[in-house]
């Protein structure tokens, strides 16, 4: 399988603090990769460098074999990297439809936009009226709206930052089904604290600890790894 995303020596320092240090990450095209680690491990900083929101202190990022280390975020979106932030991309005063249409217009025009919007809202299972204001949605549903916005960009790599936060058990079950469905067409990088979701959805898991990769492997291997248990899972 080909590598869609590769980092080498990727590092970020914030005034003396090494938030991410020397990360070599290879994500294969078509896989669902989970990125886990304790609070403050550097997960959000790492993906910020993948999508261009954070400038690395050192190291490189390649997408499809092309060095994108210095490419601005909006051009990375055009290449097919979509990142759902922790809600910061939702416009509270716009409707669900308008929010998703903003994202869909990157690739479509005219009637194609309306179709893409309806498809994306349907795919994430948001059944509120499309004219409802996004700000009136529950926190969990705003997360789903963000995923719909990401999908409308027809991404090749979809980066989801804690997507199940604020979702009910039934919504989490639906989310897992959505990931399985999406994985047929999209490579997914999933930052997630909910271990059952990680263990069920991921092909491979990367564990970050103090800014460095502590372990990498399939979910069973990670679950059995003593260093991971000690650092994160709390079951060592
Ligand atoms: N803009 C910033 N300026 C200074 N320090 C920062 C900044 N952003 C993050 N940090 C620090 O970098 C470290 C890594 O933070 P980061 O948010 O990447 O971790 P995380 O693994 O995503 O944590 P969480 O699971 O809590 O979201 C933390 O110590 C954090 O306080």
Automatic annotation (TrEMBL):
Record-linked SUPFAM superfamilies:
P-loop containing nucleoside triphosphate hydrolases
What high-level taxonomic lineage is stated for the organism? Bacteria, Pseudomonadati, Pseudomonadota, Alphaproteobacteria, Rhodobacterales
Entry keyword annotation includes DNA damage: no
The name under which this protein is listed is ABC transporter ATP-binding protein
- List the InterPro entries hit by this protein, alphabetically: AAA+_ATPase (IPR003593), ABC_AA/LPS_Transport (IPR051120), ABC_transporter-like_ATP-bd (IPR003439), BCA_ABC_TP_C (IPR032823), P-loop_NTPase (IPR027417)
Say which domain of life the source belongs to: Bacteria
Tell me the SMART domains matching this sequence: AAA (SM00382)
The alphabetized UniProt keywords are:
ATP-binding, Nucleotide-binding, Transport
Can you supply one Gene Ontology CC term for this chain's record?
A: plasma membrane
Q: Does the keyword NADP apply?
A: no
Q: Which residues form the ABC transporter domain?
A: 5-235
What is one Pfam family matched by this protein?
Answer: BCA_ABC_TP_C
This entry's Gene Ontology molecular function terms read: ATP binding; ATP hydrolysis activity
Q: Which organism is it from?
A: Pukyongiella litopenaei
């Amino acid at each position: 399988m080909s590598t869609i995303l590769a980092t080498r020596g990727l590092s970020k320092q914030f005034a003396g603090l090494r938030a991410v240090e020397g990360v070599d990450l290879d994500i294969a095209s078509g896989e669902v990769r989970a990125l886990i680690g304790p609070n403050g491990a550097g997960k959000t900083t790492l993906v910020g460098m993948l999508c261009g929101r954070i400038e690395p202190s050192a190291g490189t990022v390649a997408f499809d074999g092309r060095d994108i280390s210095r490419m601005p975020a909006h051009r990375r979106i055009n290449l097919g990297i979509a990142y759902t932030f922790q809600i910061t991309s939702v416009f509270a005063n716009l409707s669900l439809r308008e929010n998703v249409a903003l994202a869909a217009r990157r690739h479509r025009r005219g009637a194609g936009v309306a179709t893409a919007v309806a498809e994306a809202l349907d795919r994430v299972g948001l059944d509120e009226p499309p004219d409802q204001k996004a700000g009136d949605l529950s926190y969990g549903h705003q997360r789903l709206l963000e995923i719909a916005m990401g999908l409308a960009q027809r991404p090749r790599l979809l980066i989801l930052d804690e997507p199940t936060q604020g979702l009910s058990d039934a919504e989490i079950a639906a989310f897992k089904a959505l990931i399985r469905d999406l994985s047929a067409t999209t490579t997914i990088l999933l930052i997630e604290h909910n271990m059952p979701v990680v263990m069920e959805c991921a092909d491979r898991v990367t564990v970050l600890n103090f800014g460095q990769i502590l372990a990498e492997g399939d979910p069973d291997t990670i679950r059995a790894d003593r260093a991971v248990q000690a650092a994160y899972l709390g079951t060592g």
